[in-house]
Amino acid sequence: MIKLAPSILSADFSQLAESVKAVENAGCEYLHIDVMDGHFVPNITFGAVVFEKLRKKSNMTFDCHLMIEQPDLYLEDFVKAGADIITVHQEACVHLNRTIHHIKELGCKAGVAINPATSPQALEYVLQDVDMVLIMSVNPGFGGQKFIPQSLDKIKKLKQMIDAKNYNVDIQVDGGVSVDNIHDIVTAGANIVVAGSAIFGKDNIQKAVSNLRDSAEQS
Question: A Gene Ontology MF term for this entry (predicted)?
Fold first, then answer.
């Protein structure tokens, strides 16, 4: 069964705690928290202080996606704030292997994200060290974008790379996920799916989550 990771980038920022509780009550396993610095991506969201406050409101797995430059400078802050998984961008890390091991030394699971223009082959020599790979199916920085169809081929290639070495690595997909494409995303090999407007953009969150699961698991 897939795991759903609602992205609070699409939630009502004036009612974050209530939004987090709503998706947890709907059965979502992960909470995807996009941290943006206005440099690596053209937007600014929130930092470790907000993260820490939300941590006290939920028992979900906190999935921290750092879309920032020089992520190594902030790893300890997010670990202290309660992150379970920290994902950094391959494109933002000068010494990716070192960053991955730093995350693990701090007691977190380590993820690596790749942008739409980055090939899965760029991760060939770190796959054995990571817990998760995040394939961005939109260009990072904004919610509500359309899914890039070529992402399906990237998911398949990454899945083949993982299976060929028998690695235990989750594949997460983020960007433009909807009831119309989640089945194809899961069939291609993803097992953790980030959804923003497809969950928080609906009037009934419980129903939105149920619809996504049903679509993902259809035969």
Answer: D-ribulose-phosphate 3-epimerase activity
Q: Is 34 annotated as a binding residue?
A: yes
Instruction: Clarify whether 12 is annotated catalytic.
Output: no
Alpha-carbon distance values, 174 to 105, 182, 194 (Å): 26, 11, 5
Mean pLDDT computed over 63-87:
97
182-196 pLDDT, tens digit per residue, is 999 999 999 999 999
Q: Which of 129, 174, 184, 214 is catalytic?
A: 174
CA angle, corner 157, sides to 154 and 158, nearest 5? 85
CATH for 111: 3.20.20.70
Is residue 219 over pLDDT 80? Answer: no
> Is residue 161 very low, low, confident or very high in pLDDT (cuts 50, 70, 90)?
very high
Residues spanned by the domain of 7: 3-217
Q: How far apart are the first and last CA of the chain?
A: 13
